[in-house]
UniProtKB/TrEMBL annotation:
It is an enzyme of class 1 (oxidoreductase). Pathway: Amino-acid biosynthesis; L-serine biosynthesis; L-serine from 3-phospho-D-glycerate: step 1/3. Residues 327-399 form the ACT domain. GO terms for molecular function: phosphoglycerate dehydrogenase activity. SUPFAM superfamilies: ACT-like, Formate/glycerate dehydrogenase catalytic domain-like, NAD(P)-binding Rossmann-fold domains. It catalyses: (2R)-3-phosphoglycerate + NAD(+) = 3-phosphooxypyruvate + NADH + H(+); (R)-2-hydroxyglutarate + NAD(+) = 2-oxoglutarate + NADH + H(+). This is D-3-phosphoglycerate dehydrogenase. PROSITE patterns: ACT (PS51671), D_2_HYDROXYACID_DH_1 (PS00065).
């Protein structure tokens, strides 16, 4: 584990409520939490929409205490050398439990049943008779023996798929980009679909667990609904943008889709027939909020103090023990000669290298070099300036 003396107190700004146990990672002597700061060193966020927000040049990192990063302008952050972290899997169990709860509850018409029975208030002694007479409208289906289609077998999808098998469902899953780690976690009894169409054709219930990106936006639309079994129930605990809302409204109206259970209500959703709107509760458990907050804040602290990177969505993973007296971290384009230019600048300043790492991710790369020598601040500035003058550099930090 790294050790490093901070040269100044760092400022952290939060844009949503972040669990105290996570914020406690930032020790008082080294950090201040200031939610009014317009130039924090790092930002910790949950679902706050950052797309319209001005992000000060002092911001070095943004940590999403959760999974989805569609509320963060990730491409702009990358171009500016701001690392964006998330917390893979930290809230997956919470989401899985709510998906399974909703699967059983909606299949048994529990939500509409409870709503209806409350309308009997005021009927006095007649309530039990009215309940017995009315319950025939609410006959549901058991999930045992039915087929669940899971689109996206990541942290959440894999847990849902495995647990559905334990509930005696048949499960068919589709994920063309599945990670090796998740593939190891999946039960071999889950049927592997080679296309979404295969899932649509076979499933009685479909649950979607993919990120919202330009590739997945609107992936459920009129044509896809036509491929599904009439009366299918669709569960969306991922993002509203995955569903073409007008098409969903029409599919519900015609009962092509039997029920739409979503964690992302909006005005359109509230006007749709046979919809169960849930107020984005997927990750809202004490356990999940703490897991996410602790993971997010630890990752940011490590990055601010040592430059080490774990679970960034736009920087490569890169970690080495902090062995030297100072560390030079450089985020740059993934082009030839970068390491040579950085190490030349270091030797031009008469400094010796103790250790180094270079990792790339797509068009960008990240290099960290530990310096063996004690360096005074004048040399730090000269070194920083010299590296910044090099072509294809995005950001330089000497820490
Ligand atoms: N409701 C909530 O509170 C809540 C909580 C956590 C996550 N989420 C949402 O759920 C999403 C999934 O969360 P996760 O933790 O499982 O993320 P994850 O990154 O672990 O899994 C996402 C999976 O989707 C797969 N995928 C990507 N594009 C696909 C496509 N076109 N077809 C099929 N599979 C595809 C990926 O390969 C990956 O395995 C998040 O991005 C977030 O938007 C919501
Ligand atoms: O992507 C996520 O992690 C979830 O949507 C949770 O969002 P929240 O942190 O705002 O509850």
């Amino acid at each position: 584990m790294s050790t490093l003396t901070l040269d100044k107190v760092k400022t952290i700004k939060t844009l949503n409520h972040i669990a105290e146990s996570g914020l406690a990672v930032f020790k008082k002597d080294d950090y201040t939490i200031d939610n009014d700061s317009d130039h924090p060193d790092a930002i910790v966020v949950r679902s706050f929409n950052m797309h319209e927000m001005e992000i000060h040049e002092n911001v070095k990192a943004i940590a999403r205490a959760g999974a989805g990063v569609n509320n963060i302008p990730v491409d702009t952050c990358t171009e500016r050398g701001i690392a964006v972290f998330n917390t893979p899997g930290a809230n997956a169990n919470a989401v899985k439990e709510l998906v399974i709860t909703s699967l059983m509850a909606s299949s048994r018409n529990l939500f509409s049943g409870v709503e209806w029975v409350k309308t009997l208030q005021g009927e006095g002694d007649q309530v039990p008779n009215l309940v017995e007479a009315g319950k025939k409208q609410l006959v549901g289906s058991e999930i045992k023996g039915k087929k669940l289609g899971v689109i996206g077998l990541g942290a959440v999808g894999a847990l849902v798929a495995n647990d559905a098998l334990d509930l005696d469902m048949d499960v068919i899953g589709f994920d063309p980009f599945i990670s090796i780690n998740t593939a190891w976690e999946l039960s071999r009894n889950i049927e592997r679909a080679m296309s979404m169409e295969e899932v649509f054709a076979e499933a009685d219930y479909i649950t979607v667990h993919v990120p919202l990106t330009d590739d997945t936006r609107g992936m459920f639309h009129a044509e896809t609904f036509k491929l599904m079994k009439p009366g299918v129930h669709i569960f969306n605990f991922s993002r509203d943008g995955l569903i073409h809302e007008q098409d969903m409204a029409e599919a519900l109206e015609s009962e092509r889709v039997g029920k739409y259970i979503t964690d992302f209500p909006n005005e359109n959703v509230l006007n749709m027939k046979n919809t169960v709107p849930i107020p984005h509760l997927g990750a809202s458990t004490k356990e999940s909020e703490e897991n996410c907050a602790i993971m997010a804040t630890r990752q940011v602290k490590e990055f601010l103090e040592t430059g080490n990177i774990k679970n960034a969505v736009n920087f490569p993973d890169a970690s080495i023990p902090y062995t030297g007296k100072r560390r030079v971290t450089v985020f740059h384009y993934n082009v030839p000669h970068m390491v040579g230019q950085i190490t030349t600048a270091i030797s031009n300043n008469n400094l010796n290298i103790a250790d180094m790492i270079n990792r790339s991710r797509g068009d960008y790369a990240y290099t960290m070099v530990d310096i063996e020598n004690e360096i005074d601040e004048a040399v730090v500035s000269s070194l920083e300036e010299e590296i910044k003058r090099t072509r294809d550099i995005v950001t330089v930090r000497v820490i």
